[in-house]
Write a structure and sequence with these properties.
With 315 residues, the protein is of the alpha+beta class. Helices cover 33% and strands 16% of the residues. It has a five-stranded mixed β-sheet, with helices on one face. It has a three-stranded mixed β-sheet with strand order 1-2-3. The protein has a two-stranded antiparallel ribbon with strand order 4-5. α2 crosses α6 and α3 crosses α5.
Length: 315
């Protein structure tokens, strides 16, 4: 049996059966054999189902499911596997190969994440539930228990032993994390060329393969000729109008990718610099993308009228 992208396939043999004896552990060491237990665990994680929930949906006893996932069940029936896979949102198909053609091994038959998940669980002593996504803890920020790691000013005074892996018990948080991971892996950045928009207006979009928009960057060209009254070749500038992205997709690198696409287009068009006005987190974001504060330019100033009786400021 093989699995790819949540699909489990039972392939009929295409060669004559051999009469040579087969070692008892040959199926376990054969690289062409799929680990059914790991495949079911991967499907359960994708569906966010515990063993008890999957057993209730499929009608298969939980003890049977546990034996299959642990590798203690010898030859479960096809109907049992079909019910389990269907309850987890998968699909079982049977196909035969032409005579003389052997099946090519699939990359990550139980899913690339399934292998890494199993290794993480082994490293953590199997303390993480099998239906939850295990996340490796490399620094305090990776562990929800290290609440102080989000504030650099406090992190110096706190420390604790970090676990090897962590996981989320809140299903809503798990769903949000999976959506964010899907966005992080799937979004693409391109320049949107709308024939109804002037060519001096630049727009870059970050979207998913299905066309869902998750971020955009807008800018426009500014010619120095309009300011000086005479042409000055090579001194065109770009004014950044804004960088927007979905609030649920913050800290996924979407903004940086948009700014990188802007920089690449500037290099292609021969535009020398880009200007932007920002404050607060926007200023920190542009600073992390390579923008710097330009001296001798417009500054934001504030004046508060003095309160009666209050001492006057002296500069």
């Amino acid at each position: 049996m093989t699995a790819e992208h949540g699909v489990v396939t039972d392939v009929e043999p295409t060669t004559e059966p051999t009469t040579e004896p087969v070692a008892p552990d040959q199926a376990e060491t054969d690289p062409e054999t799929t680990d059914l237990g790991a495949t079911l665990r991967a499907l359960r994680r994708a569906a966010d189902l515990s063993q008890r929930e999957l057993a209730a949906r499929s009608g298969v006893p939980q003890t049977t499911l546990a034996r299959i996932e642990c590798g203690r069940s010898v030859g479960p029936s096809f109907r049992t596997v079909e019910r389990l896979v269907a309850a987890a949102g998968g699909r079982v198909t049977i196909r035969s190969l032409p005579a003389g053609r052997q099946e090519q091994p699939l990359v990550g038959r139980a899913g690339p994440s399934a292998v890494s998940q199993e290794r993480l669980r082994d490293a953590a002593g199997r303390h993480c539930p099998a239906h939850l996504d295990a996340r490796e803890v490399r620094e305090p920020k990776d562990w929800p228990g290290a609440w102080w790691a989000q504030w650099p000013g406090l992190s110096a005074g706190y420390w604790s032993v970090l676990p090897a892996v962590t996981y989320r018990l809140d299903r809503e948080r798990r769903d949000r994390d999976r959506i964010r991971e899907r966005v992080r892996r799937g979004f693409r950045v391109r320049r949107d060329l709308d024939p109804e928009v002037p060519t001096t207006s630049w727009r870059f979009v970050a979207e998913l393969p299905d066309g869902e928009l998750v971020g955009e960057l807008r800018a426009h060209e500014r010619s120095i000729e309009l300011l000086l009254g005479f042409p000055l070749p090579g001194w065109d500038e770009i004014v950044l109008d804004g960088v927007l992205f979905t609030p649920a997709c913050r800290r996924l690198g979407i903004g940086r990718r948009l700014v990188a696409a802007l920089a690449a287009e500037m290099a292609r068009c021969g535009v020398r610099s880009a200007l932007g006005v920002a404050e607060g987190e926007g200023a920190c974001f542009l600073g992390s993308c390579g923008f710097g504060v330009e001296p001798m330019k417009a500054a934001v100033m504030r004046f508060d009228p003095p309160v009666s009786g209050a001492p006057q400021r002296r500069w």
